[in-house]
Amino acid sequence: MRNYFVLTIMSLFSIATIFLVVKYVVVPYAQMHTWLHVAETLNKEQDKKINENSFPFKQQSLASQIIRLDLIDLVFKSQKPNSSLGINYDTALNLMEKYAAENSVYPYVYYMLARGFDEKAVATGEKKWLINAENYYHRALVLFPNRQEFLYPYAFNLFQQGKVVDAKEVLLNLYKADPTLPENSFYLGIFSINLGEQSYNDALDKMEYAFEHGFEVIDTEAFSDSYTRLFMYYYKKNDIVKTKIVATRLSTVENNQKDLFAEIVRYVKTTNSLPKLQIEER
Fold first, then answer.
1. How confident is the model over 17-30, as a mean pLDDT?
2. How many angstroms separate the CA atoms of 232 and 246, rounded?
3. Could you tell me if 65 and 109 are in contact, meaning their C-beta atoms sit under 8 angstroms apart?
4. What is the percent of the chain where pLDDT is above 90?
5. For the residues 188-198, what does the mean pLDDT come to?
6. Where are the domains of the chain?
7. Using CA atoms, how far apart are residues 65 and 16, in angstroms rounded to an integer?
8. b/e per residue 19-42 (b: at least 16 CB within 10 A)
9. Residue 46: count of CB within 10 angstroms of its CB
10. DSSP designation for 279
């Protein structure tokens, strides 16, 4: 009788072990293996629709979370060169929202959702998606308070909604907490450009401080737009010194008019004057 009891316990233990190995090792591995093949296909065929009920997404696991984050990142990159959302954009957001609603305490899930809805608002022109994004920023910040990576885009989300005072407060608080951090200086500077010409000098000082202390541009489009606005302003004021500073930066950071600004810098250095340019009103 005792041997039978021992054998029963051992059998149950073996079954439980097999179950755990399958659930936490075999299934996640199979999901990742399948996803890598799907991702490779999507990179080559961006118009290929994915099935959100397929194996990589259906079984909840850590692998499934990683796969969903990877999918959102993938559709972000494919959407960036285009003005309209890619075919899998809404599917990626939907899959991650389902995961977040069920069991996520991982702040980056909410952060990626927030960025996703920010992008959707820009692509569609529908500001209602900014509210979705703001809600997800809040959830991410509850789990990871004062995370700078979350707070910078959160502030610009508030600005896009017309909450200028709230947005400025977020960035000012970050700057006051550590004014020596290049990122804090740069993002407050780039935000300040939107407050009007009276803020341009301070904005330029803060952004140049950031570059001089090792800041590296991630969003080249936002950088190019902001510095081009500064260039046009100082050029029209015939401010040779500041025009040269701005043009020099535009000639060293990747943008679609890098070579033109390099020529302008050479001209200013040679003649100590500004070249005659056709400046279009923006």
1. 53
2. 10
3. yes
4. 51
5. 94
6. 217-282
7. 24
8. eeeeeeeebbeebbebbeebbeeb
9. 16
10. P
Q: Report d(CA 101, CA 225) in Å as an integer.
A: 37
What pLDDT score was predicted for residue 13?
A: 53
Q: Write the burial class of residue 143 (CB in 10 Å: 0-12 exposed, 13-18 middle, 19+ buried).
A: middle
- 278 within 8 A of 264, measured Cβ to Cβ: no
Helix ranges, 80-127 (H): 89-103, 107-124
The SS3 of residue 198 is helix
Q: pLDDT tens across 61-91, in order?
A: 667 777 777 777 777 776 665 666 777 888 8
pLDDT of 107 over the 70 cut: yes
What is the spatial distance between Cα 167 and Cα 154, in angstroms, rounded to a whole number?
8
Residue 22: predicted pLDDT: 46
In this structure, which amino acid lies at residue 255?
N
CA distances from 204 to 78, 190, 192, 262 (A): 32, 8, 9, 19
DSSP-derived letter for residue 215 is -
Neighbours of 110 (CB within 10 A): 25
Q: Which helix (H) or strand (E) is 157 found in, with range? A: helix 148-160
* CB-based burial, 195-209: b 16+ in 10 Å, e otherwise: eeeeebeebbebbbb
Ramachandran region, residue 234 (left: φ > 0; alpha: ψ -120 to 50; beta: rest): alpha
Spatial contact of 245 and 265, defined as CB atoms under 8 Å apart? no
